[in-house]
Write a structure and sequence with these properties.
It is found in: Cell membrane. The chain has 8 helices and 10 strands. By secondary structure, it is an alpha/beta fold. The protein has one domain: Rossmann fold (3-Layer(aba) Sandwich).
């Protein structure tokens, strides 16, 4: 069965001739929680930036519901939300509410619909009380939640996170992790790039490992946990801890 999101022979070569990703064939089904892991330089971020057309391939293609995303990039970006590693690079509004409204406003929606989406999205991430606050005053965890709200306001089917825990303290990690798990429970397809498997692996149904621009392993986390160190990925602490017990959430 075809997935909601697919890549076929996806290859990206930089202008200097270096191949960032090579011949990636991948199919992700609706409702999956997928982790993409790999050492620095393995091609993880380059891969996910092709999912909604931020990068265009040198060869191959990306399909969304069976159609090339290049057929309608605007529609693809509505259905696939990408949350960057650096939250500040994604925040553009003068207030929290303004920032969440930015995406819907660019869809030329009515004021009533924009306000409705902003209200729902802020409630979903627990930032309603900070709607009129300036984003630069937020904590790291709150900024990450704000970027999630901005993506939610676009009503995406798929949400892609690129190293969502970078720079966060423990409370911030818990805030963001609860948000991600909640989004999955509410029916969103989650794709998460991370090297911190101990925080997320218990919640995922699939682990993809990349090395040198290629997918080298793809399967259930419990089947691959003993192999991750072979690919330069830190194994979650505790030699005998099973994937089922590695959870940061109660």
């Amino acid at each position: 069965m075809s997935g909601i999101l697919e890549t076929q022979q996806l290859t990206h070569i930089f202008p200097n001739g270096k191949a960032a990703i090579q011949e990636i064939n991948l199919s992700i089904k609706g409702g999956e929680f997928v982790i993409i892991a790999g050492p620095n330089g393995s091609g993880k971020t380059v891969l996910i930036r092709h999912f909604n057309g931020l990068f265009l391939p040198t060869k191959g293609k990306v399909l969304l519901e069976g159609e090339p995303i290049t057929k309608d990039l605007t529609e693809a970006r509505k259905k696939i939300g990408l949350i960057f590693q650096n939250s500040d690079s994604q925040i553009v509004g003068q207030t929290v509410a303004d920032d969440v409204a930015f995406g819907p406003e660019n869809l030329n929606l009515s004021r009533k619909e924009v306000d409705h989406r902003v209200k729902e999205s802020l409630e979903a991430v627990g930032l309603s009380d900070l709607a009129n606050q300036q984003p630069h005053t937020l904590s790291g965890g709150q900024k990450k939640k704000l970027t999630v709200a901005g993506v939610l306001a676009m009503n995406p089917q798929i949400i892609v996170f690129d190293e969502p825990f970078t720079g966060l303290d423990y409370p911030g990690v818990l805030q963001v992790l609860k948000q991600i798990v909640g989004l999955h429970k509410n029916g969103h397809t989650i794709i998460l790039v991370t090297h911190e498997l101990e925080k997320t692996l218990a919640h995922a149904g699939r682990l993809i490992i990349m090395e040198k621009g290629r997918i080298v392993r793809d399967g259930e986390p419990s089947q691959l946990i003993n192999e991750v160190e072979l690919y330069g990925i830190r194994r979650p602490y505790g030699q005998n801890r099973s994937v089922e017990t590695m959870t940061w959430l109660s």
